[in-house]
Every structure is written in C-alpha cells, then in structure tokens.
Amino acid sequence: MTAKTTIQERIATVGRRKRAVARIRMTVGSGKLTVNDKAIDSNLVMEEPLVLTGLTGKFDISAKVVGGGVSGQAGAVRHGIARALLQHDPETRSVLKKAGLLTRDPREKERKKPGLRRARRAPQWAKR
Fold first, then answer.
1. Which among 110, 109, 85 has a CA at the least distance from the CA of 99?
2. Of the candidates 36, 59, 41, 52, which has an alpha carbon nearest to the alpha carbon of residue 102?
3. pLDDT digits (tens, 9 = 90+) for 12-34
4. Which among 64, 62, 51, 83 is positioned nearest to 20, based on CA atoms?
5. Comparing C-alpha atoms, which of 68, 65, 86 is closest to residue 19?
6. pLDDT the model gives residue 8
7. In the chain, which residues have pLDDT < 70?
8. Between the CA of residue 113 and those of 25, 37, 55, 117, 118, what are the distances in Å?
9. Among 52, 71, 73, 59, which Cα is nearest to 12's?
10. From CA 100, how far away is CA 96, in angstroms rounded?
11. How does the average pLDDT of the chain come out, rounded?
12. What residue spans define the domains of the chain?
C-alpha cells in the first residue's frame, strides 16, 4: 500500500451508522459532494473529516447510501469519508482517531421483546 495515492486512483470505502450503509468513491477533484446522485452544497456532519484534515475542496466524493434515516445516513457518509482519507494519507490517522471519526458507532435500535410494548416498555400494571 502506498502512502499517497496517484491522481487517477479512486478510493472506495464503506461507512456505517445505525442501519445506514454508505459506499464512498473518492477522487482528486474540485470538492463536489454527491449523495445518491444529488449534489450536497454543505453539510457540516458529512464534511467534518475533510475540515479536520484541512482537505476541504480537494476531493470529489460520490456516496450511495441505503437504509436508516437522515441522521444515520449522514453519519455513515462521514464514517466512509474518514476511512477514505485514511486510505489516501495514513498520516491523517491521529487527527481522525482523536475526533472519533474512525470508530464505527455501535448503537442500534433494540429489538421489541414479546409481552412488552416496545423493547423495554411493559404494559401498565394495576395492583387493584
């Protein structure tokens, strides 16, 4: 694995959060960010890894996201971009790790249990 990628090389990574899965394609470019074929002007959550590493506007990023909601999808894209930046330049690891962007957030919705209304919410109980 090379320390720096060549200009023509594409970096492909996967980011996950909650039930959302984002497939990221990153190439050197003008800083366009597209998610599911829609251009995103600015999203602080998704661009956080680029801002922290000082690489804003240097890569074209295309993301295909499935599953989850808006927040989970944004977090999945952020995770994928952080992984792609790490692949591009391993020296960014300390900055990304310190910000907690390389760690996959394991929190997911707990499943509903039988006899309960939700995961832990029991039916109302009356003594008399």
1. 85
2. 52
3. 999 999 999 999 999 998 888 99
4. 64
5. 68
6. 60
7. 1-8
8. 39, 38, 46, 8, 7
9. 59
10. 6
11. 89
12. 11-98
- 3: buried, middle or exposed (CB in 10 Å: 19+, 13-18, 0-12)? exposed
DSSP label at 40?
-
Q: What angle do CA 21, 43, 90 make, to 5 degrees?
A: 65
The pTM of the full predicted model, rounded to 2 decimals, is 0.85
Task: Give me the pLDDT at residue 2, please.
Answer: 53
Q: What is the CATH number of domain 11-98?
A: 3.30.230.10
13, burial (CB in 10 Å: exposed 0-12, middle 13-18, buried 19+): buried
Question: Is the Cβ–Cβ distance between 68 and 40 less than 8 Å?
Answer: no
